[in-house]
Amino acid sequence: MAQLAALLKKKGYNITGSDKEFYHPALSILKEAEINNLSSFKKENITKDIALAVIGNSQSYTNCEVQEIESLNIPYTCFPKLLYELIIKKRRSVVVSGTHGKTTTTALTAWCFKTAGFNPSYFIGGKVTQLNPSLFQGEKYSVVEGDEYDSAFFAKIPKFTFYSPDILIITNIDFDHADIYRSLEEIEEQFSRLVSSVPNHGFIIACIDNPTVRKNLATWQRKTKATIITYGKSELADYRLLLRETKNNKEKVEILTPSGKDTYLLGITGEHNALNSTAVYAVFKEEGLPIDALKEGLKTFKGVKRRQEIVYQNQTVLIDDFAHHPKEVLATVKSIRDKYPEKRVIAVFEPRSNT
After folding, report:
1. Which domains does the chain have, with CATH numbers?
2. What pTM did the predictor assign?
3. Of 154, 181, 161, 151, whose CA–CA distance to 60 is shortest?
4. pLDDT tens digits for 235-266?
């Protein structure tokens, strides 16, 4: 929401905001954008001259400001709907979805489009030093992180429902968000609807290694007119990860594509990131975009903050990572062990989400 507020301020709108508290990094984003009219929730904050209220998904109808918005008949919307209007509409949309790996894959895709000269719009759900701000209004393409979490109390549907993908990446599907989903099957249904929304001039890039993706492929084929392309380590994958080697803080990756083998360097390490890069390669290849330009982006990408971020390094290396789902923790620890085979790995884990 802070990045959205900053973008709207840059476009010339007068922005105010309310929350229980304002913390960094959101507070620093707002201050940098010179949005200083911030307050705790109070009925008096809502006045008749407000043109539009954007209500976050953490708020309910019982919120005093929400009730005043209703009382004064002020138009309101939710974050994903406004995001569509600002950076997706009238552009060829790349939506990156999945339980894990969305943020890194979105950032990597946006960076590769940018280094290839396409000046894309993008929204990334994390901080990326090379892509600052993480919400940007560009030109022909948009690259958006598609979250399966719900949108608002008045729109109890996934955020990605609003994003109208022309190109859809599905990294994996696992059970998550136990506060709003009762089962994996409920999550599968939402992804099935998302797949159905891709038009026949679009395509879907899905990781066949994931059991839930693999189980649903046949059903998805019947539900969409779009082409479904697979990637992964599996021999069945259209874009297959063959080999990866970690060296000098980069990955040397070899893949098998429908047109033969290819190799490239990747600026971030780990098997999961090599797979993420395979999905991005497939997007460029299927879209007919220049592969040489893609490779430059893959090689120079430096990653996302709090995704295997080195915060201290001497004899000891201290790494900060956002991983909270058990499978994400496993992938992160495995990647660190690959990168530092000679070191002892100690993991300190804070379980604090609804995963």
Report:
1. 2-77 (3.40.50.720), 84-300 (3.40.1190.10)
2. 0.88
3. 154
4. 999 999 999 998 877 899 999 999 999 999 99
